[in-house]
Amino acid sequence: MNIEDQLRTLRWRDPPPEFLKQTLERALTESRQRPGVLQPSGAFREQRDSCTRRSPLAWLAFIPRPLRLPLAACWLLALYFKLTTPEAVPQSTLQNYAKLPAITPSQFFAHLEHIESLAHELLEHHYGPTPPL
Question: Residue 1 and residue 121: Cα distance in Å, rounded?
């Protein structure tokens, strides 16, 4: 069974409503503490020039803390699928491959020897002749 079929057969439980409510309240509270956010009083919180705004990871400060770990897990899963999923081959390419004559083992090895000889010629040309041992 491949990974795709395994993921399709999994059943996920919904998180408890208390967890969702607590996470949302915490995210809203923390988001109101960020600079440039409208406060409940109607005023904007002052923007301060801190070292976190200059670092390459400054965008992390804009993600509420309770959401960082689930987002990181989703991003890693998306990266995994992007790296492991092969690109689709166009149908026209598959049809062109089907039209090619079948190669025999002797033709394959002759072609391989030809490629190796060309590679040795190029290396000699690039580095010069190899001295005898």
Answer: 47
Tell me the DSSP string of 69-106.
HHHHHHHHHHHHHHHHSPPPPPHHHHHHHHHSPPPPHH
Backbone angles phi, psi at 128, to 5 degrees: 95, 170
pTM of the model: 0.32
Sign of CA dihedral 78, 80, 83, 85: negative
Chunked mean pLDDT (size 10), the chain, 133 residues: 80 83 84 63 53 64 82 92 87 90 91 94 81 69
Q: Which residues pair with 119 in a beta bridge?
A: none
CA-based torsion, 23, 27, 30, 32: positive or negative: negative
